[in-house]
Amino acid sequence: MSQAGYILAINILVAGLFASAFAWAATYEKVSRPARWIVAGFLLGMASFGAEWLIAVADDARFFVFASFALSITAFALFDAGLARAYRQPIPWTLLLGILAVSLPLNLAIYDMPRTSPVRDVLYQFPYFLMQMVGAWIVARAKSPRPLDKALGVLLAVSGLQFLVKPYLAVAFGTGDRPQAYVDTFYAVLSQSMGAVLIVAVGLMMLVILLRDVLAEATVRSETDPLTGLLNRRGFEQRARTIAQRLATPKLPASIVICDLDHFKSVNDRFGHAVGDKVISAFAKQLHDAVSENHIAGRIGGEEFAVILPGVDGASARLFAEGIRSAFAAAAIEGAPTDLRPTASFGVAELTRTDTLSDMLRRADLALYEAKDAGRDCVRVARPYFSGGSEERRALRDG
Predict the structure, then answer these.
(1) Out of 225, 267, 347, 380, which residue is the most buried by the measure of CB atoms under 10 Å away?
(2) Is 370 tagged catalytic?
(3) 233-397 belongs to which homologous superfamily?
(4) Going by C-beta distance under 8 Å and a sequence separation of 6 or more, which residues neighbour residue 108?
(5) Model confidence, pTM
(6) Is 127 strand, coil or helix?
(7) Which helix (H) or strand (E) holds 304?
(8) Which of 303, 304, 350, 370 is an active site residue?
(9) Per-residue pLDDT, 387
């Protein structure tokens, strides 16, 4: 077997491995749609390499030459479709099908042209260039691209440009006097080697990007409360640490609001946990509708919630809490008894020049206890300084 033949065999194996890897990725719902398109692309790529391998042993190579091209250019189109799905864009079917519609009959038309013709080589390679540039264009249109996305776009562009280089290499080294002789040429070794390197690079980069999205979704799920859609305690504390670093230097205004549903245990006892869940969901919706993009809201306990308000002073935070309190007290809970009118209490604390985020949390916690002690369904603002723990007041307010 020639060197090019070995590289073709390696390319078949590599395409098969990538098809298997993306098939595994397709088992994750987050990336299942793009991964399925890419699996189909790599399977067609395997078939294309197989057809190219058979050219050397065919008496009349015309069928296998066309089959190899048709399978490979369609594989590129399917990969681009997967890219579009991965980046949440409409698949550019008009563009992809247009390239296929022109390139397939063109490939048949140039078969009988002299194999030494540079025009023939350009016409053969140009559809591949177009397909790769469509992929680079899809990535370039991604919203908020990250370094990996930019790297993938560059790789696709480089992969596209190599197809414009191949005609020059074909003229310099020759492609053989007939299709069956191609596999024994030095050009075949160069062409297959370049293709193998770029297939591996693009495939690995795309696989890493899909796995990145899978891990990101897993992280979101692990930090999200399933009932309310807000951050759970873990997610809230993680975001709070990030906020604390941003607030440390320079000292920016910030406030925190801690909320607790009043007499929630009695709601569960009287109406059942299903109604209790509806109450929690209704309150969480009030929070979700009130917060802006830079606010951090979470369910940090069974019926306890917290909101960090970067850039908001204590007076504005109190107005924020009063708005939620009054809206929740007046809202009817869908699916709950009409006589159920739950309320909530709020503690507000503003970050001072001398305390930390932890200090602010403790003072807001104490202010919440004061709201409970004052009769509930009200808002209290913490004093600038606080000393002491909150365990005792938690015991007093429970129930």
Answers:
(1) 347
(2) no
(3) Reverse transcriptase/Diguanylate cyclase domain (3.30.70.270)
(4) 66
(5) 0.72
(6) helix
(7) strand 304-310
(8) 303
(9) 46
